[in-house]
Known about the structure:
The protein is an alpha+beta fold. The protein is built from 8 helices and 9 strands. The chain has helices at residues 2-7, 59-69, 97-128, 157-169, 187-190, 201-204, 217-225, 237-255; strands at 13-15, 23-24, 27-28, 35-39, 52-56, 135-136, 149-153, 174-176, 226-230. It has a 4-stranded antiparallel β-sheet with strand order 6-7-9-8. It has a 3-stranded mixed β-sheet with strand order 1-4-5, with helices on one face. The chain has a two-stranded antiparallel ribbon with strand order 2-3. Helix 4 crosses helix 8 (237-255). The longest helix has 32 residues, at 97-128. The protein is globular.
Amino acid sequence: VLDVARGAGVPVLEDACQAMGATYRGRAAGTLGDLGAFSLQLEKNITAGEGGVVVTSDPELAVRAARYTDQGGQFVTARGARGDGAPFVGENLRMNEVSGAIAGVQLGRLPGIVARMRAAKEQLLTLVGDHPDRVLRSCPDPAGDGGSNAIWYLPSADHAQRFVAALLAEGIPSATLYGGQPVYANAALAQQLAVTPSRSPWARHPVPVTYRPGMCPRAEDLAARAAAVAIGPGYSHADVQDVAAAVAKVTAAVLG
């Protein structure tokens, strides 16, 4: 993606919303592209209640990102100074100061949080062991894994749904990823439902765009068969043992 985009002179916005603290070959997730986006929503590695963070080393992109979150940048400083660059209509997504203060403290805790989740995940996988019909999702750089969940691929979508339902019945946080479907299966995208249709990305695109089942068959297959188990930074050794026991019990019941 980076090679193609940079060859065409197109900046890459990296979605690292669920990967704060993860690394790839020594580089932090979110710093591989030209901009990186992180989420501070309650299900992420650290949270400030809501909001997020955008990082970039490009001053022009930094200003443009800031302007987008603040009505397009009618003013781009607290003193009302007007910024350079062509005007555009943005959003009203300013993060409040209290969330920002909480996020600042949370960032200092991030390395320890990620380290604890990695250790808990490693312990869980050791306790659970392998099963021929429960395939662990591969990680391109295990040393940089964020550690916030363990994801297995089951033989079928039905197996995955039964696996998750059984874990939930055991009191273990578990879910199929995005309901077992790719993002483009969401009705809002599939039907291109916009608040203002005439200003939607699809209305402005030079050629018609459609989303349909079968566009990404491998991704669709994997999404349907994926079962995730959440791992928290506060898990004790006993907590991990409980999760492992539940996974083993459910594996035996669902997969034999």
